[in-house]
Write a sequence for this structure.
């Protein structure tokens, strides 16, 4: 009788595995890009989905019609820490008119999430372990902040930690 049982259990295990896989959402509801809408913008600001240059370009295309501030950062970057509170404040003030987006590069997700929580960031960031987005944009180092107007045109680039004046002036420029 013993040889018969494994033959009956194996198909049952396979069926259960297939059903479990079909019912899975692949990583937690609301944690990444919205499958229902097809949007690449993460619905959970701390999801940190992996992005490359093509994903970044697609996301910017989807955000056409909305001014966008993109900040390239890393949790280990001292100047990024200097500007982080300014970005949180700006998002609180302009978040209904501007989409803020972080691009976390050359980092570890756990460290990046701690950083985001520490500074109260409520806007999404994407995860670019090799720095391909930064490199694809021709940027050197971090932090770098890009300001896109509602038409999707890059209107300003700020290299280094943002000052209050630079942030305000560039936000005014893309929301005018």
């Amino acid at each position: 009788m013993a040889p018969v049982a494994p033959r009956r259990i194996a198909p049952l295990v396979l069926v259960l595995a297939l059903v479990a896989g079909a019912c899975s959402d692949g990583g937690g509801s609301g944690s990444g890009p919205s499958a229902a809408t097809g949007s690449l913008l993460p619905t959970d600001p701390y999801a940190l989905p992996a992005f490359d240059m093509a994903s970044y370009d697609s996301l910017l295309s989807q955000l056409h019609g909305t001014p966008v501030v993109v900040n390239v950062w890393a949790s280990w970057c001292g100047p990024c820490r200097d500007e982080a509170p300014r970005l949180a404040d700006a998002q609180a003030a302009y978040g209904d008119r501007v989409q803020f987006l972080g691009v976390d590069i050359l980092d570890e997700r756990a460290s990046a999430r701690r950083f985001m929580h520490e500074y109260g960031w409520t806007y999404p960031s994407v995860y670019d372990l090799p720095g391909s987005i930064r490199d694809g944009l021709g940027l050197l180092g971090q932090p770098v902040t890009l300001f896109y107007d509602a038409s999707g045109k890059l209107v300003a680039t700020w290299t280094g930690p943002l000052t209050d004046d630079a942030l305000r002036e560039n936000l005014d420029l893309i929301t005018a």
Notes: The CA atoms of residues 83 and 151 lie 26 Å apart.
